[in-house]
Protein: (apollo) hypothetical protein
Organism: Parnassius apollo
Amino acid sequence: MNICESCSNEFNDGAQCYVCKKHYGFGCAGITERGFRNLGADRRAQWKCLQCIKVSLSPSRPSSETNPGGNSGGESATLDVAGVVGWSQQFQVLSKTSNLLKLN
């Protein structure tokens, strides 16, 4: 049994962020259970919560954090494929929710 970091409800199955290690129920994670399962084992293991995705997308991070090797070649923060998939699915959930609210 886990406690959702976002809503504090208990849940049996959800997602764990591989960066911060926090647990989220699928509803709060912004991904459906089916969508999470479809990611495959490797991408599920690299799933990021919305907060960690925001940090990895932040252009204001110092280059030493963006590139731990210390090369400050003006590189922006990188985003892995699992983060893009998670972000895309979270956007789809928000978009559907927005459309439902407009209908009401």
In short: The first helix runs from residue 26 to 29. The chain has one domain: 2-103. The chain has a mean pLDDT of 75.
